[in-house]
Design a protein that fits this description.
Blueprint lengths: L1 E6 L2 E3 L5 E9 L4 E9 L6 E6 L5 E3 L7 E6 L4 E6 L8 E10 L3 E5 L3 E5 L2
């Protein structure tokens, strides 16, 4: 069984920073793409950023230049550094990891709340 444990959310003022972490443990191997998604109240879940096993990153236009995704393959962990946070960044943030060989598996974290407010 695979567990994805997120941490790092919280309340921050506009312009502030937070760093999210998502650590995978259990029977996980050959980790492929890792990513962060978010869901604001009344809205659909949307992609924030992804990083491939080779380190190629992709960002939503709304966070480009402010957020940075990275991964530590030795720790099976993906990070999201969020700078210059705005109230519209308020959402529950979820990590997603894809792993496996011929058969691919997908797992989601439990979600962590990020609230940007003065």
């Amino acid at each position: 069984q695979v567990r994805l444990v997120e941490s790092g959310g919280g309340l921050v003022q506009p312009g502030g920073s937070l760093r999210l972490s998502c650590a995978a443990s259990g029977s996980i191997f050959s980790i492929g793409p890792m990513g962060w998604y978010r869901q604001a109240p009344g809205k659909q879940r949307e992609l924030v950023a992804t990083v491939t096993s080779g380190g190629t990153t992709n960002y939503a236009d709304s966070v480009k230049g402010r957020f940075a995704i990275s991964r530590d393959n030795a720790k099976n962990t993906v990070y999201l550094q969020m700078n210059s946070l705005k109230p519209e960044d308020t959402a529950v943030y979820y990590c997603k990891i894809i792993w496996g060989g011929v058969r691919r598996y997908e797992g989601w974290g439990q979600g962590t709340q990020v609230t940007v407010s003065s």
